[in-house]
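Progress against Task 2.4 (sequence-to-structure conversion) is shown through the following example record, which the project officer requested during the mid-term review.
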Amino acid sequence: MTLSEALAWGRAALAGGESPAIDTQLLLMQATGVSRTALLAFGDRPLSPEQQAAFEAAIARRQAGEPVAHILGEQEFYGLALEVTPHTLIPRPDTETLVDLALALPEEALRFLDLGTGTGAIAIAIAHHRPRWQGVAIDRVAEAAALAARNVARHQVAVEVLAGSWFEPVAGKRFGLILSNPPYIDPVDPHLGQGDVRFEPLSALIAEEAGLADLKHIIEQAPAYLQSPGWLMLEHGYDQGQAVRELMQLRGFVAVRTQHDLGGQERVTLGRWQDN
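C-alpha coordinates generated for the chain above:
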Protein backbone atom coordinates (compact mmCIF):
# COMPACT_ATOMS: atom_id res chain seq x y z
CA MET A 1 0.00 0.00 0.00
CA THR A 2 1.37 3.42 -1.01
CA LEU A 3 0.62 6.73 0.66
CA SER A 4 -1.87 7.62 -2.09
CA GLU A 5 -3.56 4.25 -1.82
CA ALA A 6 -3.73 4.59 1.96
CA LEU A 7 -5.37 8.01 1.68
CA ALA A 8 -7.97 6.72 -0.76
CA TRP A 9 -8.67 3.63 1.35
CA GLY A 10 -9.00 5.65 4.54
CA ARG A 11 -11.37 8.19 3.01
CA ALA A 12 -13.56 5.39 1.73
CA ALA A 13 -13.52 3.62 5.09
CA LEU A 14 -14.57 6.80 6.90
CA ALA A 15 -17.05 8.00 4.28
CA GLY A 16 -20.18 9.32 5.91
CA GLY A 17 -18.28 10.75 8.87
CA GLU A 18 -17.88 14.44 9.63
CA SER A 19 -14.42 14.88 8.07
CA PRO A 20 -13.14 11.67 6.39
CA ALA A 21 -10.37 13.36 4.38
CA ILE A 22 -8.89 15.31 7.28
CA ASP A 23 -9.21 12.40 9.70
CA THR A 24 -7.47 10.08 7.23
CA GLN A 25 -4.61 12.51 6.71
CA LEU A 26 -4.04 12.99 10.43
CA LEU A 27 -4.10 9.26 11.17
CA LEU A 28 -1.79 8.45 8.27
CA MET A 29 0.63 11.17 9.31
CA GLN A 30 0.83 9.66 12.78
CA ALA A 31 1.22 6.09 11.50
CA THR A 32 3.99 6.98 9.04
CA GLY A 33 5.65 9.97 10.64
CA VAL A 34 5.50 11.99 7.42
CA SER A 35 4.17 15.52 6.97
CA ARG A 36 0.98 16.53 5.17
CA THR A 37 3.12 17.91 2.35
CA ALA A 38 4.92 14.59 1.97
CA LEU A 39 1.61 12.70 1.85
CA LEU A 40 0.66 14.68 -1.24
CA ALA A 41 4.09 15.06 -2.85
CA PHE A 42 5.31 11.47 -2.47
CA GLY A 43 2.11 9.49 -2.96
CA ASP A 44 3.93 6.53 -4.48
CA ARG A 45 6.01 5.95 -1.35
CA PRO A 46 5.11 2.55 0.14
CA LEU A 47 4.14 2.00 3.77
CA SER A 48 6.09 -0.53 5.78
CA PRO A 49 4.08 -3.48 7.13
CA GLU A 50 4.22 -1.92 10.60
CA GLN A 51 3.01 1.45 9.32
CA GLN A 52 0.16 -0.12 7.40
CA ALA A 53 -0.93 -2.15 10.41
CA ALA A 54 -0.85 0.94 12.65
CA PHE A 55 -2.84 2.96 10.10
CA GLU A 56 -5.48 0.28 9.62
CA ALA A 57 -5.87 -0.06 13.40
CA ALA A 58 -6.31 3.70 13.75
CA ILE A 59 -8.92 3.79 10.99
CA ALA A 60 -10.81 0.95 12.71
CA ARG A 61 -10.86 2.93 15.96
CA ARG A 62 -12.21 5.98 14.13
CA GLN A 63 -14.84 3.84 12.39
CA ALA A 64 -16.01 2.79 15.85
CA GLY A 65 -16.55 6.47 16.67
CA GLU A 66 -13.49 7.13 18.83
CA PRO A 67 -12.41 10.80 18.57
CA VAL A 68 -9.37 11.45 16.40
CA ALA A 69 -7.81 13.41 19.26
CA HIS A 70 -7.93 10.34 21.49
CA ILE A 71 -6.35 8.19 18.79
CA LEU A 72 -3.60 10.74 18.19
CA GLY A 73 -3.20 11.52 21.88
CA GLU A 74 -3.20 15.26 21.27
CA GLN A 75 -5.25 18.17 19.97
CA GLU A 76 -4.30 21.64 18.78
CA PHE A 77 -5.82 24.61 20.59
CA TYR A 78 -4.98 28.22 19.86
CA GLY A 79 -1.99 27.02 17.83
CA LEU A 80 -0.60 24.89 20.66
CA ALA A 81 -0.43 21.08 20.66
CA LEU A 82 -1.89 19.63 23.87
CA GLU A 83 -1.92 16.09 25.19
CA VAL A 84 -5.45 14.76 25.61
CA THR A 85 -6.86 11.72 27.39
CA PRO A 86 -10.36 10.32 27.98
CA HIS A 87 -10.31 11.94 31.45
CA THR A 88 -11.04 15.40 30.02
CA LEU A 89 -12.93 17.24 27.31
CA ILE A 90 -11.22 17.58 23.95
CA PRO A 91 -10.42 21.30 23.44
CA ARG A 92 -12.72 22.80 20.82
CA PRO A 93 -12.39 25.85 18.55
CA ASP A 94 -15.44 27.52 20.12
CA THR A 95 -13.56 27.79 23.40
CA GLU A 96 -10.93 29.93 21.69
CA THR A 97 -13.55 32.71 21.97
CA LEU A 98 -12.90 32.71 25.72
CA VAL A 99 -9.17 33.12 25.17
CA ASP A 100 -9.75 35.90 22.63
CA LEU A 101 -11.74 37.89 25.22
CA ALA A 102 -9.11 37.40 27.89
CA LEU A 103 -6.33 38.56 25.59
CA ALA A 104 -8.36 41.67 24.73
CA LEU A 105 -7.91 42.94 28.30
CA PRO A 106 -5.14 45.47 29.02
CA GLU A 107 -1.76 43.75 29.06
CA GLU A 108 -0.54 44.89 32.47
CA ALA A 109 0.45 42.01 34.72
CA LEU A 110 -2.44 40.25 36.43
CA ARG A 111 -3.28 36.98 38.14
CA PHE A 112 -5.94 34.83 36.51
CA LEU A 113 -7.83 31.72 37.54
CA ASP A 114 -9.05 28.96 35.21
CA LEU A 115 -11.72 26.77 36.84
CA GLY A 116 -12.31 23.22 35.59
CA THR A 117 -9.17 23.42 33.48
CA GLY A 118 -9.23 19.93 31.92
CA THR A 119 -6.26 19.76 29.55
CA GLY A 120 -5.17 23.21 30.73
CA ALA A 121 -5.93 24.61 27.27
CA ILE A 122 -7.41 27.95 28.31
CA ALA A 123 -4.80 28.80 30.93
CA ILE A 124 -1.89 27.67 28.76
CA ALA A 125 -3.05 29.64 25.72
CA ILE A 126 -3.46 32.80 27.80
CA ALA A 127 -0.14 32.42 29.60
CA HIS A 128 1.64 31.67 26.32
CA HIS A 129 0.48 34.99 24.86
CA ARG A 130 0.75 36.99 28.11
CA PRO A 131 4.06 35.92 29.71
CA ARG A 132 3.77 38.66 32.36
CA TRP A 133 0.52 37.17 33.67
CA GLN A 134 0.42 34.56 36.43
CA GLY A 135 -2.17 31.79 36.13
CA VAL A 136 -3.73 29.22 38.42
CA ALA A 137 -5.63 26.29 36.90
CA ILE A 138 -7.90 24.01 38.95
CA ASP A 139 -9.63 20.72 38.23
CA ARG A 140 -11.38 18.44 40.70
CA VAL A 141 -10.43 15.30 38.75
CA ALA A 142 -6.92 14.27 39.79
CA GLU A 143 -6.13 12.72 36.39
CA ALA A 144 -7.19 15.94 34.65
CA ALA A 145 -5.05 18.07 36.95
CA ALA A 146 -2.08 15.81 36.25
CA LEU A 147 -2.71 16.09 32.51
CA ALA A 148 -2.91 19.87 32.71
CA ALA A 149 0.37 19.94 34.64
CA ARG A 150 2.06 17.91 31.89
CA ASN A 151 0.79 20.32 29.26
CA VAL A 152 1.97 23.29 31.32
CA ALA A 153 5.43 21.73 31.56
CA ARG A 154 5.40 21.00 27.83
CA HIS A 155 4.82 24.65 26.98
CA GLN A 156 6.76 26.12 29.94
CA VAL A 157 4.19 28.75 30.88
CA ALA A 158 3.56 30.49 34.20
CA VAL A 159 0.56 28.44 35.36
CA GLU A 160 0.18 26.64 38.70
CA VAL A 161 -2.08 23.58 38.50
CA LEU A 162 -4.07 22.56 41.57
CA ALA A 163 -6.48 19.69 42.23
CA GLY A 164 -9.73 20.54 43.99
CA SER A 165 -13.36 21.54 43.60
CA TRP A 166 -13.91 24.96 42.04
CA PHE A 167 -12.57 27.69 44.38
CA GLU A 168 -11.55 25.49 47.33
CA PRO A 169 -7.80 25.35 46.55
CA VAL A 170 -7.49 29.16 46.37
CA ALA A 171 -9.37 30.18 49.53
CA GLY A 172 -8.44 33.70 50.55
CA LYS A 173 -6.83 34.62 47.21
CA ARG A 174 -8.02 37.15 44.66
CA PHE A 175 -7.57 37.42 40.91
CA GLY A 176 -7.99 40.06 38.27
CA LEU A 177 -9.65 37.58 35.93
CA ILE A 178 -11.60 34.35 36.49
CA LEU A 179 -12.49 32.15 33.54
CA SER A 180 -14.26 28.83 33.16
CA ASN A 181 -15.63 26.44 30.60
CA PRO A 182 -17.71 24.46 33.12
CA PRO A 183 -20.17 21.62 32.47
CA TYR A 184 -23.26 23.25 30.96
CA ILE A 185 -25.17 20.56 29.03
CA ASP A 186 -28.61 19.51 30.21
CA PRO A 187 -28.44 15.85 31.37
CA VAL A 188 -31.36 15.00 29.03
CA ASP A 189 -29.80 16.63 25.94
CA PRO A 190 -30.00 14.09 23.06
CA HIS A 191 -26.63 15.25 21.69
CA LEU A 192 -24.91 13.41 24.54
CA GLY A 193 -25.43 10.20 22.58
CA GLN A 194 -23.87 11.53 19.39
CA GLY A 195 -20.39 12.11 18.03
CA ASP A 196 -17.22 12.56 20.08
CA VAL A 197 -19.03 13.43 23.32
CA ARG A 198 -19.91 9.74 23.71
CA PHE A 199 -16.24 9.18 24.57
CA GLU A 200 -15.83 12.15 26.92
CA PRO A 201 -16.50 12.14 30.69
CA LEU A 202 -20.08 13.09 31.55
CA SER A 203 -18.83 14.88 34.66
CA ALA A 204 -17.17 17.44 32.37
CA LEU A 205 -20.25 17.85 30.20
CA ILE A 206 -23.50 17.86 32.18
CA ALA A 207 -24.88 20.01 34.97
CA GLU A 208 -28.21 19.99 36.78
CA GLU A 209 -30.83 22.73 36.50
CA ALA A 210 -30.93 22.44 32.70
CA GLY A 211 -27.17 22.80 32.55
CA LEU A 212 -26.97 25.96 34.68
CA ALA A 213 -26.02 24.60 38.11
CA ASP A 214 -22.24 25.00 37.84
CA LEU A 215 -22.53 28.34 36.07
CA LYS A 216 -24.73 29.57 38.92
CA HIS A 217 -22.23 28.34 41.52
CA ILE A 218 -19.30 30.12 39.89
CA ILE A 219 -21.24 33.37 39.43
CA GLU A 220 -22.35 33.35 43.07
CA GLN A 221 -18.88 32.61 44.49
CA ALA A 222 -16.64 34.56 42.10
CA PRO A 223 -16.88 38.02 43.73
CA ALA A 224 -15.16 36.70 46.86
CA TYR A 225 -12.15 35.80 44.69
CA LEU A 226 -12.07 38.80 42.36
CA GLN A 227 -10.05 41.96 42.74
CA SER A 228 -11.87 45.24 42.23
CA PRO A 229 -12.15 45.80 39.39
CA GLY A 230 -12.00 42.26 38.11
CA TRP A 231 -13.51 40.23 35.29
CA LEU A 232 -15.50 37.00 35.11
CA MET A 233 -15.73 35.18 31.76
CA LEU A 234 -17.84 32.04 31.30
CA GLU A 235 -18.39 29.75 28.35
CA HIS A 236 -21.93 28.37 28.10
CA GLY A 237 -24.42 26.74 25.74
CA TYR A 238 -25.71 28.48 22.64
CA ASP A 239 -29.14 28.95 24.26
CA GLN A 240 -27.97 29.99 27.74
CA GLY A 241 -26.72 33.51 27.06
CA GLN A 242 -29.74 35.34 28.39
CA ALA A 243 -29.89 33.22 31.55
CA VAL A 244 -26.19 33.75 32.28
CA ARG A 245 -26.43 37.50 31.68
CA GLU A 246 -29.36 37.72 34.10
CA LEU A 247 -27.51 35.69 36.73
CA MET A 248 -24.45 37.94 36.49
CA GLN A 249 -26.50 41.12 36.67
CA LEU A 250 -28.47 39.87 39.69
CA ARG A 251 -25.18 39.08 41.44
CA GLY A 252 -23.99 42.64 40.88
CA PHE A 253 -21.70 42.37 37.85
CA VAL A 254 -21.69 45.33 35.49
CA ALA A 255 -20.82 45.77 31.80
CA VAL A 256 -22.28 42.31 31.21
CA ARG A 257 -22.30 41.18 27.61
CA THR A 258 -22.14 38.01 25.50
CA GLN A 259 -19.70 37.20 22.72
CA HIS A 260 -20.59 34.97 19.76
CA ASP A 261 -18.40 32.04 18.70
CA LEU A 262 -17.05 31.23 15.24
CA GLY A 263 -20.40 29.76 14.26
CA GLY A 264 -22.32 32.88 15.27
CA GLN A 265 -23.78 31.35 18.45
CA GLU A 266 -23.80 33.04 21.87
CA ARG A 267 -20.88 31.33 23.62
CA VAL A 268 -19.11 33.44 26.27
CA THR A 269 -20.61 35.92 28.73
CA LEU A 270 -18.43 38.30 30.69
CA GLY A 271 -18.95 40.89 33.37
CA ARG A 272 -16.89 43.28 35.52
CA TRP A 273 -16.90 43.15 39.30
CA GLN A 274 -16.51 46.42 41.20
CA ASP A 275 -16.67 46.53 45.00
CA ASN A 276 -19.16 49.08 46.28
